[in-house]
Design goal:
heterodimer; A: 308 residues; mainly alpha; MetI-like fold; 70% helix; globular; B: D-Maltodextrin-Binding Protein, domain 2; 2% strand
Chain lengths: 308, 226
């Protein structure tokens, strides 16, 4: 027998509503507690420590804005590490988006065995970053790495990928692009949501493949590109693991990323107060860049149904 | 440090206030040290990944090292090559100088049982334990009384010339202590500045004078600021 809400007495209804609310709060409690203890707590702590000279083994003393002033006026590695990170970010975002989009276009073609190819291209994401860093360190090895072995087979000179200041950043970018399977999958999903009738209409109007891609696919995909660019920029500025495992910031600081600099200040120099200030500056940089991308979005991002 | 002192230089003035890396004697030592990479080609190339320890995998003929790795090297079965140890050659002033580590044990002020901790440290530094460490090829004994110990000197090779390690204590200098909060030769800003200067010479091909004068000035600024 169906019972409508109107037939439940007010008192029971209120009690049920209260119980449901409590149950809901209990369900989200672990996540909220986790966020407070493990995310917001450390954030507040690091904000406080960024104004101190905390070095773990000494008590923290308040130093005002000294850490921030030193960062911009005395730390020569601040500019260097930021420069390395920006160069990496530009290369990674540009090459990564183009490669992943091209792969996604290929992976949405109607050919036999596409499920296999999609699985195959998603595999890199399963490999932990530490493991893939070790793997790529071997692949790039000048002495016995297969990449240089292949180049030599073609009669080309071996490249000292990780040992040369000229090639090491590119080597890390290529590895990161290889690890960007999630971006490809998001592009695949975006491409699949483009209405077929729009592409058909463009075809009937005489548009060739390139024109359909530029005038239909790209605008319809622009929200997906927007999302992927934002996440890629944030990820690029947080780049750390491969530099730590594969190059240790070298050679000669050529891969001394901002986060590697921060790690060294915190865990090798034990300058926790200074490193906290660095972390907040990085947060501000990422926030500013994300804001810029958001502000630019009306110029190039088209949302379905939007009238311009 | 051995190269700097072998050429008559010092890392720091006696009062601990002035960094002396850019003195002419220190620079001469640093030049000789970096020449092993930039001129003589006998140092492990800084841009080369041997796929492990270069000496162990047979990619380097020479290895400046402490006694500790002997144990691991001896455990390689079969032994990949014949090896032995020798005291480093004399510097131009005729002196042999080599780096010498220390046992950095300490007892925390908040230790629950400082007396027990003290007994433990004394046991570690006892003749019995130190001899056991040497007999295991894991280090050289601290006690001078063990320097001519027949059992240690009669240890089966490799290395056949283990006496070189034993007698080299005569030439040892301990790491320079730096006051303040700028780190040490092994950690912190001082370590980073010196490593950066080395990279600048060996990888970026800067002059020893330019690279180590920069390191000298940066470390001095840190010491002055602390």
């Amino acid at each position: 027998m169906a019972v409508t809400v109107a037939h439940i007495p007010e008192k029971i209804r209120r009690q049920t509503s209260w119980t449901a609310t409590l149950r809901g709060y209990l369900f989200i409690l672990p996540v909220v507690l986790g966020l407070i203890i493990w995310t917001f707590g450390p954030m507040v702590a690091s904000a406080y420590y960024s104004f101190t000279d905390y070095k773990i083994i000494f008590p923290a003393g308040f130093v005002g804005a000294k850490n921030y002033i030193n960062l911009f006026t005395r730390d020569k590695q601040f500019i260097n590490s930021l420069s390395v990170t920006i160069r990496y970010a530009i290369m990674f975002v540009a090459l990564g988006q183009v490669t992943c989009l091209a792969l996604a276009v290929l992976l949405t073609q109607k050919v036999r065995g596409m499920d296999f190819f999609r699985t195959f291209f998603y595999l890199p994401i399963i490999v932990p970053y530490v493991a893939s860093s070790v793997l790529w360190k071997y692949l790039y090895n000048k002495e016995f790495g297969p990449i240089d072995g292949f180049l030599e087979l073609l009669g080309l000179p071996a490249v000292n990928w990780l040992g040369s200041q000229d090639t090491v950043l590119l080597a890390l970018v290529l590895m990161s692009v290889w690890s960007s399977a999630t971006t490809t999958i998001i592009y695949v999903a975006g491409l699949q949501h483009i209405p077929e009738e729009l592409l058909d209409a463009a075809k009937i109007d005489g548009g060739n493949g390139v024109q359909r891609f530029i005038y239909v696919t790209m605008p319809m995909l622009s929200p997906t590109i927007f999302f992927n660019v934002v996440t890629a920029v944030i990820g690029a500025f947080q780049f750390f693991t491969p530099a730590f495992i594969m190059t240790e910031g070298g050679p000669a600081k050529a891969t001394y990323f901002y986060n590697y600099n921060l790690y060294e200040k915190a865990f090798k120099w034990l300058e926790m107060g200074y490193a906290s200030a660095m972390a907040w500056v990085l947060f501000a940089i990422i926030l500013f860049l994300t804001f810029l991308i958001f502000r630019s979005s009306p110029l190039w991002v088209y949302y379905d149904g939007e009238v311009r | 440090m051995p190269f700097i002192e072998g050429y008559g230089g010092k890392v720091l003035s006696a009062d601990g206030k002035k960094v002396l890396l850019s003195s002419s004697e220190s620079l001469a030592g640093l030049q000789a040290y970096t020449d092993m990479w930039t001129k003589d080609g006998i140092g492990k190339p800084a841009d080369f990944d041997c796929g492990g320890d270069c000496f162990t995998v047979g990619k380097a003929a020479l290895n400046f090292t402490i006694p500790g790795p002997m144990n691991a090297l001896r455990k390689l079965n079969p032994q990949p090559f014949k090896w032995d140890v020798e005291v480093i050659p004399s510097f131009p002033n005729g002196k042999k100088v080599t780096g010498m580590g220390t046992y950095g044990f300490g007892i925390s002020a908040n230790a629950k049982d400082p007396e027990l901790a003290w007994q433990f440290i004394k046991a570690l530094l006892s003749v019995k334990t130190q001899k056991a460490i040497a007999m295991d090829y894991s280090g050289m004994p601290l006690q001078k009384s063990l320097r001519k110990d027949a059992d240690i000197l009669a240890l089966a090779g490799p290395p056949d010339n283990i006496e070189a390690f034993m007698s080299n204590g005569e030439n040892g200098i301990t790491p320079q202590y730096f006051p303040g909060k700028c780190g040490s030769l092994y950690a912190g800003q001082i370590n980073t500045e010196i490593n950066d200067a080395f990279d600048a010479v060996v990888i970026s091909k800067k002059s020893v004078t330019e690279a180590f004068t920069t390191a000298n000035d940066n470390i001095q600024a840190c010491l002055d600021g602390n």
